[in-house]
Structure formats: structure tokens, C-alpha cells
Write a sequence for this structure.
């Protein structure tokens, strides 16, 4: 939500900014994965089943983004985030289970595949805000608490970023110098944020997520108008 507009402010065309942004997202996600794994909060057994629908969706989204303008998915972004903010406000436990709750597998809840597939399409297309959609799919769909959802979220984000980058690089749409600068800052931020998340309460995380979603909705709304 911040890095993509920042690249465009520098005068980079939207389709190039969208592609270049993935370099930072990928490195940020890899750094976050390492931190979650080091603290034993990454459910490695769930990685492959979760990644399959995300990666299929990512390929569809990245191919679409490479040829179509990103504004086509803006209504979907606004709708998704407003719904998530309302759920968080009215009944947060519907989307975010209690800490330590038992998660279910995709085999036991195949309906969650649709949410992960949509998250992959969106992440492949424009990336901005995909973390919220992945958290909704992992926490609301499969019952992971916020910390474990965040751990799997960065795995999914890294995987879909690799696939998207392959598409964008093949079309020569990545500017490597700003991408690498962004990647360095993103990796530092990822390490610090994982350490922060592991040392605060689940309830505090719920409020942080609610505030972030609400502010993002407002920014997107005023940007639309």
C-alpha cells in the first residue's frame, strides 16, 4: 500500500512500478519466513497444500497484470477490505480464532481453497493489500491464529512473488536498482515486525489489524474520489 505509490511518485509508470515492487516484496517475505521459522511459528506441514491454490491463482493474476491496467481490481480491493474491517469490528472471532486454536486442513475444509485461489489472483495482479486477503483465508477459512496466519502469509507472498517476477522479468518490466534499494529496506522491516508480532498479545494484534484495514479503506476510498 505504501511502496507501490512511492515508486509511482518517483515517475515510474504504474505497470513498471507494479513489477519492480515485487523485488522488495519477495525479499521482505523471505526475511519474514526466516524469522518465523527461527521462532518455531511456521507450520511447515501446511505449506505445500496452501501454496498450490495460491500459486495457480498468482500465475493467472500476474499474466493478467502484465497486459491489463491495475485499476480493474481496485473495486475488489475496496470491497474486500471494507468487509474485513466490518467483520473485525462486529465479530472478530469469526475471522481471527483464539490464540492456540486448532487449525483445519484444506482436505477437511475444501471451501477454503477458493479464498486462497482468489488471494493468489489478487497477489499476482497487484500485490498491494494481499496480506489482508491471505490472513482472511488462513485465519477465517482454516482457523489459524494471527501469528501462525502471518507466518504462512509470508510463505504464500514469497511464492506468488517469485511467480509474478518471472512473468514481469520475461516482459522486461522490472527496474532493478530501485527494486534492490526497496528490498533492503523491506528486509529490515520484516525482521523487526516479526519480532514485534511475537511479543504482543493476540488482542493487540486484532486491534492493529483493524486499524490498518480501516485506514487502508479510507485511503483507497479518497483515492477513488
Amino acid at each position: 500500500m505504501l511502496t507501490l505509490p512511492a515508486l509511482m511518485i518517483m515517475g515510474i509508470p504504474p505497470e513498471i512500478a507494479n513489477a519492480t515492487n515485487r523485488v522488495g516484496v519477495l525479499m521482505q517475505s523471505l526475511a519474514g519466513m526466516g524469522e518465523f521459522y527461527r521462532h518455531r511459528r511456521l507450520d511447515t506441514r501446511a505449506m505445500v497444500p496452501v501454496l498450490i491454490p495460491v500459486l495457480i491463482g498468482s500465475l493467472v493474476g500476474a499474466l493478467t497484470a502484465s497486459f491489463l491496467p491495475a485499476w480493474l481490481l481496485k473495486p475488489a480491493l475496496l470491497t474486500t477490505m471494507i468487509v474485513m474491517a466490518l467483520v473485525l469490528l462486529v465479530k472478530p472471532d469469526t475471522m481471527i480464532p483464539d490464540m492456540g486454536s486448532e487449525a483445519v486442513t484444506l482436505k477437511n475444509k475444501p471451501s477454503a481453497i477458493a479464498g486462497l485461489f482468489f488471494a493468489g489472483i489478487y497477489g499476482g495482479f497487484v500485490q498491494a493489500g494481499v496480506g489482508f486477503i491471505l490472513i482472511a483465508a488462513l485465519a477465517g477459512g482454516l482457523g489459524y491464529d494471527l501469528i501462525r496466519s502471518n507466518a504462512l502469509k509470508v510463505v504464500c507472498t514469497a511464492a506468488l512473488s517469485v511467480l509474478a517476477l518471472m512473468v514481469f522479468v520475461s516482459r522486461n518490466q522490472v527496474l532493478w536498482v530501485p527494486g534492490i534499494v526497496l528490498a533492503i529496506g523491506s528486509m529490515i522491516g520484516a525482521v523487526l515486525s516479526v519480532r514485534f508480532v511475537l511479543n504482543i498479545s493476540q488482542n493487540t494484534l486484532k486491534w492493529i489489524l483493524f486499524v490498518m484495514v480501516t485506514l487502508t479503506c479510507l485511503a483507497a476510498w479518497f483515492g477513488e474520489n
User: Anything to note?
Assistant: The CA atoms of residues 132 and 187 lie 19 Å apart. The radius of gyration is 16 Å.
